């Protein structure tokens, strides 16, 4: 057994075997109200990986907050190896306003690694990188679909990076999407530091989805087992089915404006050219049918029937592109 070393977060020293919450101060509201980002640290006595699990980088995505809450209440063993950092809300500003964005109208997940003297969003990104992400060896970033869109529980990861691929398969979500890093994302910023990060997507913004929450909790525990942080008895059992591994995905968009009527459900498998829905003129004058452009699985679905031409309606993941 090798003893863990103390960890410094927000100028607070956390000793091995200690469980502590550090509140990182954020920029005040213009009412002078002070905001903070709580970081909950479970610092094991034994050395091992340092894993962060963060939620609400987009302030309206709530399922990840519930996942973190359940992890906080988990009965962690005394022999935890390494360190677990749990951040229930990164974008506190967006949570207050039910918004994906910050008050400066920027997307936090396009601003990493951030700038200490940049915009409000850039400063928050820099703070999270400096005090949390850069001090860890692995990460899991929890997300949901955007407004009026549901995502099938899924992992998005760069499967060409072996440590990340191992984490992705350990998680045990129904689907793994081999996804390239997006510029400005937390995942891309940490890839520059060779820190493997998974993005977990499940459910819809501003709604709780119990299935997506439970898949997320179990997935984090399985990753921790795979990293050697906890034993198999402390983790969730393996899923009953192996995940589908998708190599690409594509949104099917509305050809006309009107009311969207899907004929498939989230998680359904579809064949090429299979009918998957239609968009009807609300006055009944015309309709446009939708067909699957390739064989795959429905991983995203628009829930709001009111649709404009060009709106993304169904997200399909495939294992190989048609020739």
Descriptive notes:
The chain is of the alpha+beta class and 323 residues long. Strands 3, 4, 5, 6, 7, 8, 9, 10, 11, 12, 14, 17 and 19 form a 13-stranded mixed sheet that branches. The chain has a 4-stranded antiparallel sheet with strand order 16-15-13-18, with no helix packed on it. The protein has a two-stranded antiparallel ribbon with strand order 1-2. Helix 1 packs across helix 6. The protein is globular, with a radius of gyration of 21 Å. The mean pLDDT is 96.
Quick recap of the structure?
The protein has helices at residues 63-72, 92-97, 120-131, 162-171, 186-191, 210-226; strands at 7-9, 12-14, 19-26, 35-43, 46-54, 81-87, 138-143, 149-157, 175-178, 197-203, 244-246, 248-253, 258-262, 269-270, 275-280, 287-291, 296-302, 306-307, 312-318. It is an alpha+beta fold.
Task: Summarize the topology.
Blueprint: E1 7-9, E2 12-14, E3 19-26, E4 35-43, E5 46-54, H1 63-72, E6 81-87, H2 92-97, H3 120-131, E7 138-143, E8 149-157, H4 162-171, E9 175-178, H5 186-191, E10 197-203, H6 210-226, E11 244-246, E12 248-253, E13 258-262, E14 269-270, E15 275-280, E16 287-291, E17 296-302, E18 306-307, E19 312-318
Parallel strand pairs: 5-6, 5-7, 7-10, 8-9, 9-11
Antiparallel strand pairs: 1-2, 3-4, 4-6, 8-10, 8-17, 12-19, 13-15, 13-18, 14-17, 15-16, 17-19
Helix pairs in contact: 1-6, 4-6
């Amino acid at each position: 057994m090798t003893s863990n070393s103390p960890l410094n977060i927000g100028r607070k020293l956390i000793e091995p075997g200690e469980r502590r919450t550090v509140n990182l101060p954020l920029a005040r509201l213009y009412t002078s109200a002070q905001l903070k980002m709580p970081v909950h640290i479970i610092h094991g006595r034994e050395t091992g990986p340092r894993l962060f699990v963060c939620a609400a980088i987009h302030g309206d995505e709530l399922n990840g907050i519930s996942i973190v809450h359940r992890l906080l209440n988990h009965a962690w063993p005394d022999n935890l190896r390494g360190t677990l950092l749990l951040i229930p809300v990164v974008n506190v500003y967006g949570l207050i306003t039910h918004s994906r964005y910050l008050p400066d109208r920027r997307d936090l997940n396009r601003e990493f690694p951030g700038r200490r003297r940049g915009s409000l969003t850039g400063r928050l990104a820099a703070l999270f990188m400096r005090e949390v992400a850069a001090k860890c060896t692995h990460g899991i970033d929890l997300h949901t679909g955007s407004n009026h869109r549901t995502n099938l529980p899924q992992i998005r990861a760069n499967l060409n990076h072996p440590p990340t691929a191992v984490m992705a398969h350990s998680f045990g979500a129904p689907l793994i999407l081999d996804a390239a890093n997006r510029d400005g994302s937390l995942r891309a910023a940490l890839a520059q530091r060779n820190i493997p990060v998974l993005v977990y997507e499940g459910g819809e913004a501003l709604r709780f989805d119990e299935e997506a929450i439970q898949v997320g909790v179990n997935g984090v525990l399985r990753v921790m087992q795979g990293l050697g942080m906890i034993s198999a008895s402390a983790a969730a059992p393996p899923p009953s089915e192996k995940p589908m591994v998708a190599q690409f995905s594509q949104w099917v968009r509305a050809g006309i404006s009107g009311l969207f009527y899907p004929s498939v459900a989230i998680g359904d498998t579809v064949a090429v050219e299979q009918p998957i829905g239609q968009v009807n003129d609300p006055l009944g004058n015309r309709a446009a049918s939708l067909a699957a452009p390739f064989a795959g699985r429905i991983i995203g679905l628009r829930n709001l029937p009111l649709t404009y031409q060009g709106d993304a309606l169904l997200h399909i993941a495939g294992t190989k592109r048609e020739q």
